[in-house]
């Protein structure tokens, strides 16, 4: 099945292991990912400081227009912040004809146009609803053998419309993790915010948010936290040592993408699953099959 | 006892000039946004009280309140608001408007956000090496060197794990631009000119 892929800026840098593992999973499942040509940043999540609301909408309209030039497939946006920006534009385009006209007036400046109709989907949506748990189970050759995982969606992953899962109590990632043979531990911070785009510049305010997430996962007995958002992965992982220092804690919790666990379970090796790119190494808990 | 009418000029200013400003007309002051915010303990007012202050004409209190730039964009308030107010969009709109009026609600986030937007405007994308580098130099090169050294462990870890591109310094080498950058700039200029409070 063909999909457009909108990688977004993060997946080309801090979240490169997300992109690599999404591609590894797509390969194992026979999904064909076609990158949107010459895509631009979606604006998330600090766009408003330098840009206006209409300018941010224009950024997302351009990506939709670029995709439409290439065809009519659904767009997969693995990054939750990109997803939320793009899906809002796609919805508003259908629901607000005046805004749609304004967008086309703006797009015309770059000789582009968008007529609507494209669907924006999160990678969890496609894995759960298009691929399905049965096929995922069938593809598992290296089950995760009861690996204890905290399922951390992050705040934006199923929002704002709750198109494929609950905005408050999502379950799609839990079900996928269980299908891979993992044990999903009790964890009440699944949709709590990590500080997102302001974590880095407002660390004193946001460190307790990350501390609470790491703490709840630890209390639940998790060996790893699984996420589906590059900003969550980044804030929870690369600043973990900073958070420890600020809060006088000693967390040493690997933060992996659900697609990394999936690739591993599908028989890809540690490197193909891009698990060698995790800074808090999950090696000891994942015990890769040689 | 004599009563004093609210000064309506500030609310009109917000409705006219702030992105999504008219959204607050829908607010019924229930307070779900405030209690639901992950950073509620760090805020002086929170969204509900800010809306109330706008309606009461308290321009200085609102414009000088750093809460308006403490939104993490988690969308919890937006999905829980019983009136469907786009709380986040109003907070973002207020922060943008304050900056435009020469007020800096939060220094670090304001600076980082400027470099962030510049990267989009000049190249079409965020360069995750360039933006933090420029940000670290915001108070001059000496401060920049100290701040860079402080972040060295994280930078090195990202580099060695193939999660960051190497740069010698800001602009060395320059960030890659998307092919359609000229068209994108024209689009952004046009969109700016069409935005509330910016019309010629």
Structural class of chain B: mainly alpha
Compute the average pLDDT of chain A.
97
Strand count of chain B:
0
Provide the β-strand percentage band of chain A: 5-15%
- Identify the overall geometry of chain A: globular
For this structure, what is the CATH class of the largest domain in chain B?
Mainly Alpha
Radius of gyration of chain B: 20 Å
Keywords:
heterodimer, A: 290 residues, alpha/beta, four-stranded parallel β-sheet, 13 helices, 8 strands, 46% helix, 9% strand, B: 200 residues, mainly alpha, Fumarate Reductase Iron-sulfur Protein, Chain B, domain 2, elongated
What does this protein structure show overall?
Chain A has helices spanning 16-29, 47-50, 53-70, 80-95, 97-107, 123-131, 133-139, 172-179, 203-219, 230-237, 240-247, 258-265, 283-286, and strands spanning 2-5, 32-35, 75-76, 120-121, 148-152, 183-184, 224-227, 255-257. Chain A is of the alpha/beta class and 290 residues long. Chain A folds into two domains: 2-121, Glutathione S-transferase Yfyf (Class Pi), Chain A, domain 2 (Up-down Bundle); 141-280, Rossmann fold (3-Layer(aba) Sandwich), CATH 3.40.50. In chain A, the strands form two sheets. Chain A has a four-stranded parallel beta sheet. In chain A, strand 5, helix 8 (172-179) and strand 6 form a beta-alpha-beta unit. In chain A, helix 3 crosses helix 4 (80-95). The two termini of chain A are 31 Å apart. The model of chain A has no long low-confidence stretch (mean pLDDT 97). With 200 residues, chain B is mostly helical. Chain B folds into two domains: 9-100, Fumarate Reductase Iron-sulfur Protein, Chain B, domain 2 (Orthogonal Bundle), CATH 1.10.1060.10; 107-193, no CATH class. Helix content of chain B is 52%, strand content 0%. Chain B is built from ten helices and no strands. Chain B is elongated and about 70 Å long. The chains are: A alpha/beta (290), B mainly alpha (200). At the A-B interface, helix 2, helix 3, helix 5 and helix 9 of A face helix 5, helix 6, helix 7, helix 9 and helix 10 of B.
């Amino acid at each position: 099945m063909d999909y457009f892929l909108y990688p977004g800026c993060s997946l080309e840098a801090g979240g490169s292991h997300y992109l690599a593992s999404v591609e590894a999973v797509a390969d194992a499942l026979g999904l064909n990912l076609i990158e949107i040509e010459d895509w631009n940043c979606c604006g998330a999540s600090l766009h408003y400081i330098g840009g206006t609301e209409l300018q941010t909408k224009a950024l997302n309209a351009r990506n939709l227009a670029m995709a439409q030039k290439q065809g009519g497939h659904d767009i997969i946006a693995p990054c939750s912040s990109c997803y939320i920006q793009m899906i809002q534009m796609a919805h508003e385009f259908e629901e607000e004809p005046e805004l749609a006209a304004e967008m086309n007036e703006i797009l015309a400046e770059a000789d582009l146009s968008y007529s609507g109709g494209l669907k924006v989907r999160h990678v969890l949506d496609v894995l759960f609803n298009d691929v399905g748990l049965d096929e995922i189970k069938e593809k598992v050759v290296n089950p995760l053998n009861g690996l204890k995982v905290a399922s951390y969606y992050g705040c934006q992953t199923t929002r704002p419309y709750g198109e494929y899962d609950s905005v408050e109590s999502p379950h799609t990632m839990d079900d996928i993790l269980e299908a891979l043979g993992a044990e999903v531990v009790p964890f009440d911070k699944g949709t709590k915010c990590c500080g997102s785009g302001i974590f880095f510049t407002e660390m004193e305010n946001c460190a307790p948010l990350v501390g609470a997430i790491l703490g709840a996962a630890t209390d639940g007995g998790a060996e790893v936290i699984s996420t589906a958002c590059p900003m969550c992965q980044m804030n929870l992982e690369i600043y973990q040592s900073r958070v420890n220092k600020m809060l006088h804690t000693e967390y040493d919790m690997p933060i992996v993408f659900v697609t990394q666990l999936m690739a591993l379970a599908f028989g890809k090796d540690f490197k193909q699953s891009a698990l060698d790119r995790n800074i808090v190494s999950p090696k000891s808990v994942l015990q890769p099959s040689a | 006892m004599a009563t004093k009418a609210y000064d309506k000029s500030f609310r009109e200013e917000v409705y006219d000039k702030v992105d999504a400003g008219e959204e607050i007309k829908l607010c019924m002051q229930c307070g779900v946004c405030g209690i639901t915010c992950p950073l509620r303990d760090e805020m002086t007012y929170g969204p509900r009280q800010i809306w109330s202050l706008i309606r009461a004409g308290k321009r200085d209190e609102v414009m000088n309140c750093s809460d308006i730039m403490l939104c993490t964009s988690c969308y919890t308030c937006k999905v829980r608001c019983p009136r469907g107010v786009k709380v986040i969009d109003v907070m973002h709109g207020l922060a943008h408007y304050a900056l435009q009026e020469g007020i800096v609600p939060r220094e670090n986030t304001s600076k980082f956000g400027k470099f962030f937007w510049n990267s989009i405007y000049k190249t079409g994308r965020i360069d995750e090496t360039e933006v933090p580098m420029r940000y670290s130099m915001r108070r001059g090169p000496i401060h920049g060197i100290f701040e860079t050294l402080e972040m060295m462990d994280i930078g090195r870890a990202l580099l060695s794990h193939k999660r960051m591109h190497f740069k010698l310094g800001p602009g060395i080498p320059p960030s890659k631009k998307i092919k359609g950058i000229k068209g994108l700039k024209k689009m952004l200029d046009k969109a700016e000119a069409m935005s509330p409070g910016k019309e010629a």
